[in-house]
């Protein structure tokens, strides 16, 4: 029995990068905030490029707390989605073209999200990484850390719990009747 020939590295990288671009482009709020994602293997780093519209207190100036929280939550959700896509992407069951055509997977839903503001976010680029503590079929727990100039000097961190999307099943048995019957 012959083994299939391995794909060239640039083909694998292009497939992974295309899938990540499609995933991120599928969430308009990510584009509104200007969040970008850098990929190294299966590790993602979220980047929030500085923009004056992100400043909440112009007297300091400091990043708006809501922007910081949204940045951390988006990082957690994209990390969870990326982790769930990874196997299908690597086995060829999912293509970047299918993702770009709007066949995006359902994203995890936030159950709760707690942010610790450790210091003011300065008017400069910010970075974040999420670590999945637990991910099962129904529930996931994620920790996110954000920094600016020095990775060891965090300006915010968060812990979130998420409801993982179930399998895409359609049909009359999965649609509740109007009125809850």
Automatic annotation (TrEMBL):
> Which Pfam families does UniProt cross-reference here?
4HBT
Domain spans labelled Thioesterase: 63-151
What the entry lists under CDD domains is as follows: PaaI_thioesterase (cd03443)
For this chain, one GO molecular function annotation is: thiolester hydrolase activity
**What's the name of the protein?**
Acyl-coenzyme A thioesterase PaaI, contains HGG motif
Native source organism of the sequence: Phaeovulum vinaykumarii
């Amino acid at each position: 029995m012959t083994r299939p020939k391995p794909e060239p590295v640039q083909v694998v990288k292009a497939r992974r990068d295309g899938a990540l671009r499609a995933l991120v482009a599928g969430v308009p709020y990510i584009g509104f905030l200007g969040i970008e994602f850098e990929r190294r293997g299966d590790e993602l780093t979220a980047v929030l490029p500085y923009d004056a519209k992100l400043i909440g207190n112009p007297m300091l100036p400091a990043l708006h707390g809501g922007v910081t929280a949204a940045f951390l939550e988006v990082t957690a959700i994209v990390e969870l989605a990326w982790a769930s896509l990874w196997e299908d992407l690597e086995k060829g069951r999912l293509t970047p073209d299918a993702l770009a055509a709007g066949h995006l997977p359902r994203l995890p839903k936030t159950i709760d999200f707690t942010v610790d503001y450790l210091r003011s976010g300065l008017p400069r680029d910010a970075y974040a990484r999420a670590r999945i503590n637990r991910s099962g079929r129904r529930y996931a727990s994620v920790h996110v850390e954000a920094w600016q100039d020095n990775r060891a000097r965090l300006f915010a961190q968060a812990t979130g719990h998420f409801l993982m999307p179930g399998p895409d099943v359609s049909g009359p048995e999965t649609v509740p009747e109007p009125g809850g019957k």
